[in-house]
Amino acid sequence: MTAAAGNGHGTDSDTMHEIEAGHDHHHHHGEDGDCAHAAARLKEAPAALDAAEAACRTRGQRLTPIRRAVLETLYATHRPLGAYDLAEALTRQDERRVAPITIYRALDFLLEQGFVHKLETKNAFVACPHHHEPGELVVFLICETCGGVDEASSPEVGAALRRVLTGAAFKPRAQVVEIAGTCAHCRAGAKGESQALT
Ligand SMILES: [Zn+2]
Ligand SMILES: [Zn+2]
Ligand SMILES: [Zn+2]
């Protein structure tokens, strides 16, 4: 589980704003620095990218520049990004057009290697540093206020779900549960800072 900890003051990067410009997220960019998800993500990014490089070497795979760029871009934000968001962000970075098909190919690789997850309901992708076991249940907690995504996993829920699937003789392609709502950080903020926001 990704711990939403630390304070994000001053850790918000310009890249993050660039990536998200032009999207109608209903949050204020000024709040990004306060988002615990952003702080947690920035902290885990360097180690996660090193681990991805190492995993590729071990598996005889290559984290090509485009694959790495896509993964880096996903680690530069705590919000899920779609293939077109990624194409836009990388085009801006390289100052030459990156075609969505290139992004899709890179995403396929990153999904296969277990470096990213796909959020089916949003058709968007989040980076994951966890190296899950095959078939491990992943529960996404998607905050509708800050847009941050946390991962939770519970062996009990996983076991219960497996029993349900076995009972139904259903073979799952992906075991992903998505729960939308308000994260602990935003709930605390709404209580404590409601005056400051007006
Ligand atoms: Zn994960
Ligand atoms: Zn939130
Ligand atoms: Zn957040």
Automatic annotation (TrEMBL):
Q: Where does Zn(2+) bind?
A: C143, C146, C183, C186
List GO molecular-function terms, semicolon-separated.
DNA-binding transcription factor activity; transcription cis-regulatory region binding; zinc ion binding
Q: Which GO terms describe its cellular component?
A: cytosol
Residue spans making up a coiled coil are none
TM segment ranges: none
Give the Gene3D superfamilies listed for this entry: 3.30.1490.190, Winged helix-like DNA-binding domain superfamily/Winged helix DNA-binding domain
Lineage top rank: taxon: Bacteria
Family membership: Belongs to the Fur family.
In the record, which residues are listed under signal peptide?
none
Q: What is this protein called?
A: Fur family zinc uptake transcriptional regulator
- Cofactor: binding comment: Binds 1 Mn(2+) or Fe(2+) ion per subunit. Binds 1 zinc ion per subunit.
Q: Name one GO biological process term.
A: negative regulation of DNA-templated transcription
User: What keywords would UniProt list here?
Assistant: DNA-binding, Iron, Metal-binding, Repressor, Transcription, Transcription regulation, Zinc
Identify the InterPro entries for this entry. Answer: FUR, Fur_C, WH-like_DNA-bd_sf, WH_DNA-bd_sf
Which cofactors does the annotated protein need, by name? Mn(2+); Fe(2+); Zn(2+)
- Which residues are involved in binding Fe cation? H131
